[in-house]
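Hello again, I could really use a second opinion on something today. I've been staring at a protein lately and its backbone has me curious. Can you walk me through what the tokens say about the fold? Take your time with it, there's no hurry, and the full record follows here:
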Amino acid sequence: MTEENFKNGQVLLIDKPLGWTSFQVVNKLRWYIKQRFHFKNIKVGHAGTLDPLATGLLILCTGNQTKNIDSYQAQIKEYIGIFTIGATTPSYDLETTIDKTFDISHITPSLIEETTKQFIGTIQQKPPIFSAIKHEGKRLYDIARKGETAEIKSREITIFDFEITKIEMPNLHFRVVCSKGTYIRSLAFDFGKALNSGAYLSALRRTKIGNFSVNEAISVDDFIKQISSE
């Protein structure tokens, strides 16, 4: 990685750590790039947000490559993770505490398998109230944190593949391949409803964006070590 590389544009594959926002990763790496090459400024952006409680593949673009961010964001994504059934949270994940509990005694492996089929294809999905989407000029999560409500419109998304890979009640391990704009938290919530129960997302990892894999990504710490030693 040279000064010229970053100016002309680099695509960096980063394995985002748990608890970090995508913007924290961008800001941290931008700071180290600027320090290393004495840039006054350099464009760095990410191609698709990951929630703080998610880990996995985050594509960062520098310099002229930032022009291609939209094309990377539009690519098909793959995730793995865990749905915990029998309860819901307002944020549909572990950002907020459980607000309702439900019976799961009727849920069998065959019911789980049949239910996954309902979600494959082009479907309508409502984003979570705890999301960065804007409603009348305000972020939905700001509205939610004030205890207020907002009418959220459904949007069309496509689920190309959805499978439950392991059942450890009440945890369901899953793999999903989906289009841009899919909220896995909403998929968890809707999946719980379809089971006549409830569910929330308790773990999430993005494994692929288009042809890019998290297996090719490096950690934030390793990137810092790499750039600092050059």
Q: What stands out?
A: DSSP finds seven helices and 14 strands in the chain. The two ends are 8 Å apart (CA to CA).
